[in-house]
Amino acid sequence: MFPLKNKIFLFKIFNYSRFFVYTLEGFPIIMVQKFFGLRRKPNPPPPKDHQEKLIKTIINMIEEDINNIQKNIYSETLVLPENPIIHWKRYIEIFKDSFHSSIRKKNNEYKTFSEDLKVDEKDLPKYYKRNFHFQTDGYLSDKSAQLYSHQTEILFRGSLALTRRVLLAPVLSYIKKQNRRLKILELACGSGESTEILLSSCENIELTAIDLSSSYIKYAEKKTKNYSNIKYLNLDALNLDHFEENFDIILSSYLFHEMPEKERNLVFKSAYRKLNHLGLMVTIDSIQLGDVPDFDWALLNFPKDFHEPFYMNYIKRPILKFMENNQFINIETNIRFLSKCVTGLKQHPNLET
């Protein structure tokens, strides 16, 4: 084992290397978009010092990340780099795929799928059957599941996993303090990023993870195959009443900005019903207008650069209000960079109106 000081130094190197690697990986893709797709100037434009603020924010999160690891809030294995051969093989696939996504963006094609994907025959909500971000096959294919996490890290310069860990830290601390086994339901688990954080950091949990995409579930299952306290189900988050049991925590990560407003509200209603009394609702997602005024320009540009049809509505409808309207109490908001974590408790029955 390395001495603590050496480990801390290594963790910092890993985090900073991640930032530089993913930033560099973005440049060839930007060039592809420029020559084969549609590139436009940001409107509204970013402030002149936005790069400095971005770097300062990431440095602060890295320091917080190291502190969380020292406190044993989450596993240090989450910071370790993956096999570089696997990483670069996947990047080559992402680079090749960027030609297709750039052309789709240029032609505004967001309902184009591979021939072997019979999307119309799937039992999926209408809003879900599209190429979110103009990515190949949306969330519906095995290849999409393999590339997605890496693609989003390139978009956010290697900061997304870091942001997710830091935002989940208070929730993980809460779980660790409980002297009982908690039942947790994760909505829209995707390819298992938050799932892996929970499983590797907390032993006193029984986790059920659901998602609409069978391909993404299959990928998440492979990622977390060494854990026995996880169950995956191919289910919609809109109606959780088919679960006989209630849960102590219901968690979602980056779900609500990709749903219409009506569906967003239905998820909160359904989650409230399936929480135990004083159960915890946790949602991690994009910040919204006014949360960090310095980044409002980025929020307004995001749906113009990517196929995100519900994002503009999302940034104008505070998650806080959805929580309040669905009777959650003790609502708290924690912001890091371009994301935030909003938590709320289900009222005790004697307090419900």
Describe it.
- This protein has 353 residues and is of the alpha/beta class.
- The protein is 47% helix and 14% strand.
- Strands 3-2-1-4-5-7-6 form a seven-stranded mixed β-sheet, with helices on both faces.
- Helix 1 (4-36) packs parallel to helix 3 and helix 5 runs parallel beside helix 6 (193-201).
- It is globular.
Mean pLDDT: 92
* Count of beta strands: 7
For the largest sheet, list the strands in their spatial order: 3-2-1-4-5-7-6
Estimate percent helicity: 40-55%
CA distance, first residue to last residue: 55 Å
Fraction of residues in β-strands: 5-15%
Supply the number of helical segments. 11
How does the SSE layout of this entry go?
Layout: H1 4-36, H2 50-70, H3 84-107, H4 142-155, H5 160-177, E1 182-187, H6 193-201, E2 205-210, H7 214-223, E3 230-233, E4 247-253, H8 261-274, E5 275-286, H9 296-305, H10 311-316, H11 319-325, E6 329-336, E7 339-345
Parallel strand pairs: 1-2, 1-4, 2-3, 4-5
Antiparallel strand pairs: 5-7, 6-7
Helix pairs in contact: 1-2, 1-3, 2-5, 3-4, 4-7, 5-6
Features:
about 350 residues; alpha/beta; 7-stranded mixed beta sheet; 7 strands; about 45% helix; globular
Briefly summarize what is shown.
With 353 residues, the protein is α/β, with parallel strands linked by helices.
